[in-house]
Automatic annotation (TrEMBL):
Species this chain originates from: Dictyoglomus thermophilum
Protein name: Tryptophan synthase beta chain
HAMAP family noted in UniProt: Trp_synth_beta
Cofactor: pyridoxal 5'-phosphate
Lineage, highest ranks first: Bacteria, Pseudomonadati, Dictyoglomota, Dictyoglomia, Dictyoglomales
UniProt-listed Pfam families: PALP
């Protein structure tokens, strides 16, 4: 089956995806789907989206040849520089797209969930840009760990609501955001941050992130006059990775998604949903999910908050199942190695999420049979937000 045509009209990628939601959510989801299909064809909408990507986000982002890393690994390695986007990561691409969608749908208020705060900041940013009210749900535990992002969202005019149930993290924050949306479907728009959730979200978020891969494809053909041998990206919910991968799915290009291996698989403390999860339903969609024997969602761990989610997008679940994309893992330690290596070799301090892709490549270079493979790595974000974590390790290291 041609991947280009998915999801099907019921929102499925093979057996994955769908719309497993209570009756009260059906109506707003169907309205969103209808509006999206219409606006996708709308020239004014497209022009406005492109305008803000160029002038507000700072696109196109460079495809940068990492010469010293390339030399070290005997490869030709290009970095897709999403770290240079306004607000420091790829999440703003989707936030701008969906905020415009909300504007064209005449909504007055944005609702969002956030884990570490990156998507909350992106949403608060576009709310300020387009003049929406904004409410961000964030687990109480995450609010404590990420005080600076809470402040940033408030500076941008958003209301941040700490969620005090369950594990007080992202999973509960999504539930609360959905609850708010059910209560205010008329004036509010739910701006979901990754390629997860019920149909049509995985499709909408992918479509707004595919700009990464569309640009990269054009850029590599211009620079190298051929397609790459490999694409590598980190996989949390899966938005930066599907954004890069999607325009290459029909090509003869090997594709690797890197999940958070946490403290190692034996420890049980990881977030490798495809590698070590089973098919289940979370937040309205069928996907690979980290769960116990009874089907309860298990606690997850990753040194990078952006990968710390028990599920993974339905399209990734499908691409794993049909074998089109290889999904592997990088542990916290390997990611931290990647973090140091890119900082020292290239003068680029990556987000810890992106450092999983870099660390994976360093660790597995010998598994690639090509003498000098041509590789694009998605540098999904910059590392400023992670300096606190690195600082703590650094102190420990020098004691
Ligand atoms: C949120 C985030 C991720 C993980 O989310 P995806 O939806 O899998 O892309 C990766 N990198 C950065 C920098 C992030 O902020």
């Amino acid at each position: 089956m041609r991947t280009e045509k998915l999801p099907d009209e019921r929102g499925y990628f093979g057996e994955f995806g769908g719309r497993f939601v209570p009756e009260t959510l059906m109506e707003p989801l169907l309205q969103l789907e209808l509006a999206y299909y219409k606006l996708k064809q709308d020239e004014n909408f497209k022009k406005e989206y492109e305008y803000y990507l160029r002038n507000f986000v700072g696109r196109p982002t460079p495809l940068y040849y990492a010469s010293k890393l390339s030399e070290k690994l005997k490869a030709r390695i290009y970095l897709k520089r999403e770290d240079l986007c306004h607000t420091g990561a790829h999440k703003i691409n989707n936030a701008v797209g969906q905020a415009l969608l909300a504007k064209y749908m005449n909504k007055k208020r944005l609702i969002a969930e956030t884990g570490a705060g990156q998507h909350g900041v992106a949403t608060a940013t576009v709310a300020a840009l387009f003049g929406f009210k904004c409410t961000v749900y964030m687990g109480e535990e995450d609010c404590k760990r990420q005080e600076m992002n809470v402040l940033r969202m408030k500076l941008l005019g958003a209301e941040v609501v700490p969620v005090k149930v369950g594990s007080r993290t992202l999973k509960e924050a999504i539930n609360e955001a959905l609850r708010d949306w059910v209560a205010h479907p008329e004036d509010s728009y739910y701006l979901l941050g990754s390629v997860v959730g019920p149909h049509p979200y995985p499709m909408i978020v992918r479509d707004f992130q595919r700009v990464i891969g569309d640009e990269a494809r054009k850029q590599i053909l211009e620079i190298e006059d051929r397609l790459p041998d490999y694409l590598i990206a980190s996989v949390g919910g899966g938005s930066n990775s599907i954004g890069l991968f999607y325009p290459f799915l029909e090509d003869n290009v090997k594709i690797i998604g890197v999940e958070g291996g946490g403290k190692g698989i034996e420890s049980g403390l990881h977030s490798a949903s495809i590698n070590f999860g089973k098919v289940g339903i979370l937040h309205g969609a069928k996907m690979y999910l980290i769960q116990d024997e009874n089907g309860n969602v298990s606690p997850t761990h990753s040194v990078s908050a952006g990968l710390d989610y028990p599920g993974v997008g339905p399209e990734h679940s499908y691409l794993a199942k049909i074998g089109r994309v290889k999904y592997d893992i990088a542990t916290d330690d390997i990611a931290i190695k990647g973090f140091y290596a890119l900082s020292e070799l290239e003068g680029i301090v990556p987000a810890l999420e992106s450092a999983h892709a870099i660390g994976y490549l360093i660790e597995h270079r010998d598994d690639f049979p090509e003498k000098e493979p041509l590789i694009i790595v998605n540098l999904s974000g910059r590392g400023d937000k992670d300096l606190g974590i690195i600082y703590a390790l650094w102190e420990g290291k020098n004691e």
